[in-house]
TrEMBL record:
Keywords: Amino-acid biosynthesis, Histidine biosynthesis, Hydrolase. Its EC number is 3.1.3.15. Transmembrane segments: none annotated. The keyword Cell division does not apply. GO terms for molecular function: histidinol-phosphatase activity. This is Histidinol-phosphatase. It comes from Lentilactobacillus curieae. It catalyses: L-histidinol phosphate + H2O = L-histidinol + phosphate. Gene3D superfamilies: Metal-dependent hydrolases. NCBIfam families: hisJ_fam (TIGR01856), PRK08123.1 (NF005996). GO terms for biological process: L-histidine biosynthetic process.
């Protein structure tokens, strides 16, 4: 019996903030590491109108996703590699799609346009409404996170609440749309937690909110991205989602799929064994 070894969150040279490494070389490394399943989930293009609703550094939006003109070349390349390595690894083509409450129609149109090729995709929250009632990037630069989000909300629990309310909106959106399998790095808002010495505890109201979100994930038949990228971030040093949420997700029998969130060859498969160990330690 062959055991499935799956990476459900990876990127390619089409990502402007990545390493530029060729995705084929990343796939070859995954094969050499014994992976049987490999989802390629490049960042889908952002809505053009977002520029009018965004604050923060240019890189936070200009380098956040692939260009619209790169979508077709991306699809063609992954489809070619699927066939080339079909006897060695099961490659799935997909996207990591950003959720914006103000641009649900754009997201719906994108999903519908590529529904015939999407095999495995992720919906993530990388942007949050903050200072000036504008969108700010959650995980780009510490300075803009501080200005637009942390200082604006003034309290970590208020910031967490706004983020998880947005995640909740994304889950509700997915409840009526197919082709997206899971919620990406559910605690990305904690990327800078060590810089601020943020508590790992959630307030009672946030605990209730998170459990509501998890129940919605369960009822919608979605998965969670068990993302190891946070372990390698200077001020995070933790998996996404954190242990408290993983425990509750396990109790609800929500599937969690390992994701390296690799943006280069060096990242492929990183901390897979640790992620699997963490899952094995969770109580039922």
């Amino acid at each position: 019996m062959n055991l499935v070894k799956r990476d459900g969150h990876t990127h390619t040279e089409f990502c402007p903030h990545g390493s530029g490494d060729d995705v084929e070389k990343m796939i070859i490394k995954a094969i050499n590491l014994g992976f049987t399943d490999y989802s390629v989930t490049e960042h889908a293009p952002l809505p053009l109108e977002l520029k009018d609703h965004y604050r923060g550094s240019d890189s936070g939006i200009d380098e956040a996703s692939m260009r619209i003109q790169d979508v077709e070349p991306y699809i063609k390349k992954i489809q070619f590699l699927k066939q080339k390595y079909r006897d060695q690894i099961n490659i799935k083509l997909g996207f990591e799609i950003d959720y914006f409450a103000d641009f649900e129609t754009y997201t719906e149109d994108f999903i519908n346009e590529y529904a015939d090729v999407i095999e495995d995709s992720i919906l993530s929250v990388h942007f949050l409404k903050g200072k000036g009632n504008k969108y700010w990037c959650v995980d780009n630069e510490l300075e803009e996170f501080a200005e637009g989000l942390f200082n604006y909300y003034g309290d970590s629990q208020k910031l967490y609440r706004q983020y998880f309310l947005t995640v909740q909106d994304s889950v509700n959106f997915l409840a009526t749309h197919g082709y997206v399998s899971r919620i990406g790095h559910m605690t990305l808002i904690k990327k800078f937690q060590d810089y601020y010495s943020l508590t790992n505890d959630y307030s009672n109201s946030n605990q209730k909110l998170i459990i509501e979100v998890l129940k919605a994930v369960k009822n919608s038949g979605l998965e969670l991205d068990l993302n190891t990228a946070g372990l390698y971030k200077q001020y995070c040093n933790d998996l996404y989602p954190d242990g408290w949420i993983r425990q509750r997700a396990k109790k609800l029998a929500i599937p969690m799929v390992f994701g390296s969130d690799s943006h280069g060859i060096v990242d492929v498969g990183r901390a897979h064994s640790l992620a699997e160990f963490e899952l094995s330690q969770l109580t039922n």
